[in-house]
Each structure stands twice: as C-alpha cells, then as structure tokens.
Design goal:
Helix content is about 45%, strand content about 20%. The radius of gyration is 19 Å and the shape is elongated. The mean pLDDT is about 90. The chain has helices spanning about 5-20, 25-40, 75-95, 100-110, 135-145, 150-165, and strands at about 45, 55, 60, 70, 115-120, 120-130, 165-175, 180-185. The longest helix has 18 residues, at about 75-95. The protein is of the alpha+beta class. The N and C termini lie close together (about 10 Å).
Length: about 190
C-alpha cells in the first residue's frame, strides 16, 4: 500500500469523535491524534530508482532491485510517536491556535522514519519533510463551527501534502551483497 489521505482523515475523525462522545481527556486526544498519523505513515514506501552495486573485481549494478518498493519499518515509528504525543499535548495545553507545535512534531516524526525494507532490500537514512503541515484552514474550519469531518478533512489534506513532499535519502543494501543510494519521495 501507499500513503492514503482518506485513511488518515477517517482515523482523525474517529479520534476526535471518540474524544467528544466519550468525554476523553486532552491526553487521550493527543494519543489518538498521534496514533492516527502513525497508522497513516506506516504505509509509506519509497521506490528504489538507482541500482546498488555488487562488490566484485569489477563492480556491477544489481539492476533487479530497480523499481522495487521498500516500506517504512514499524520499529522506527515508535520513538517518533512518543515525541509527537508529547508535542501535541503541549500544543493543546498552550492553546496554540496555529498548531505550530503539532506541525513541528510531524516534521520530527518524519525525520525519524529511518529504515525502509522489503524482503532482501534494506534502506537506512533519513526522511526530510520539505513543507511542514499548515493547519490554518483546519483551525478556521473549527472556529467557523464546521463539522468534525470537515475539520479533519482539512487536517488530512495538510498532513498528506506534507508527507507527499517528503524525501527519503539513504543507503540501500541487498543480500547479493550490494550497496547504493536510495533517494525518493514517499508514496
């Protein structure tokens, strides 16, 4: 699979509806918000576009891996989730109308997406979010009394746009053995 804005939107709707209907705490809301983003981001993939080289007297490209998708490793998402939860909670406590702390927490979370893997292909590096999410439209929708679904649609658009503008840069390895660069946008 790949990043799916509709999955993110539905997870956000479920979180905020649950918080409203079941009188949950800010902490529960922050945890649910972070979980919605993690559940969305765990589907991120990068396509291997450059062949790694197999070491030999005359190195040759391992072209069979070109076009293969490597998926983010779930183990790399846990540390980022904890950091994101605490920053979301701080934003709630400060009543930050721009949600800048939440935006920064998502950028930090993306940067911690360090390992992508599929089968015998492993890529280690970092993910750079070129454009942080801008939550002004979702804040405005909330202040204008729009439905939770409308607010979450705006949030999902901002978050999805930022993840799609993210680039993973790292080194890929294969069991042959071979090694080479892996650079590409998240899909």
């Amino acid at each position: 699979m790949a990043l799916n804005k509709n999955t993110l939107k539905q997870n956000l709707i479920d979180n905020f509806t649950n918080v409203r209907d079941n009188v949950k705490s800010q902490k529960d809301s922050a945890k649910g918000f972070a979980t919605a983003i993690v559940d969305y981001a765990k589907e991120a993939e990068v396509i291997v576009t450059t062949p790694p080289f197999t070491p030999a007297t005359t190195p040759y490209p391992a072209s069979h891996v070109i076009g293969k998708k490597v998926k983010v490793s779930g183990a790399t998402l846990s540390p980022g989730k904890a950091a994101m939860e605490s920053q979301i909670m701080a934003s709630f406590k400060l009543m930050d109308p721009t949600m800048n702390l939440i935006s920064l927490s998502i950028v930090t979370f993306a940067a911690l997406m360090l390992n992508f893997r599929t089968g015998s292909i492993n890529a280690v590096g970092t993910t750079v979010m070129a454009a942080p999410p801008i939550f002004v439209p979702s804040t405005k929708a909330g202040m204008d009394g729009k439905l939770i679904s409308d607010v979450c649609d705006e949030m999902a658009k901002a978050i999805h746009t930022s993840f799609k503008a993210s680039i993973f840069t790292g080194t890929g390895t294969n069991v042959l053995p071979s090694v080479g660069p892996v650079v590409g946008p998240l899909i």
